[in-house]
Amino acid sequence: MSVLIHVGVRASDLSKSIRFWRDGLGLKVVGERGVRYDLSDGYHNFAVFQHQGDDRPEHVSGMLDYLHIGVGVPDVAEAARRLRDMGYTIFSDGLGGKTPLDPENLEQPAFKVEDPDGITIDVSEVTTAWPGTTLHPNQTGSGEG
């Protein structure tokens, strides 16, 4: 069976992206190699590279999020407040487009936020695994990680 080694993105501003992923979403920096950071939840590697060369084209976002990344957090309201306080817009999306959400009054244990380059991040409270995956041993149903 094949193994997923890592997911990587090229950032237009590496330091801004690392603050988003590390400080906003709580991924741990496990390595730094000049223009690359390796982040991890202890099971998966997420590599963030500084884009080099010609201007990085703007990410296609909005209703047709060709790329989105799902992140599970132990406390979705806390993560939403932290990201809002960092200047990011917390929202849901649907047929009517993006609807801003108030982190103090989330109706669902989930929200969306865009990273500094416009990639949609689907943030939800960790309570169940996605098909084909297993939660960390300390994330069994309570949402605590």
Q: Can you describe what's shown?
A:
With 145 residues, the protein is of the alpha/beta class. It has one domain: 2,3-Dihydroxybiphenyl 1,2-Dioxygenase, domain 1. The protein has two helices and nine strands, in the order E-H-E-E-E-E-H-E-E-E-E. It has helices at residues 14-24, 76-85; strands at residues 6-11, 28-32, 36-40, 45-50, 68-73, 91-94, 97-100, 110-114, 120-125. It is globular and about 40 Å long.
Quick overview of this protein structure:
With 145 residues, the chain is an alpha/beta fold.
What oligomeric state is this?
single chain
**Strand content range:** 25-35%
CATH topology call? 2,3-Dihydroxybiphenyl 1,2-Dioxygenase, domain 1
The ordered H/E elements are EHEEEEHEEEE
Mind telling me the C-alpha Rg?
15 Å
CATH superfamily grouping: 2,3-Dihydroxybiphenyl 1,2-Dioxygenase, domain 1
Structural class: alpha/beta
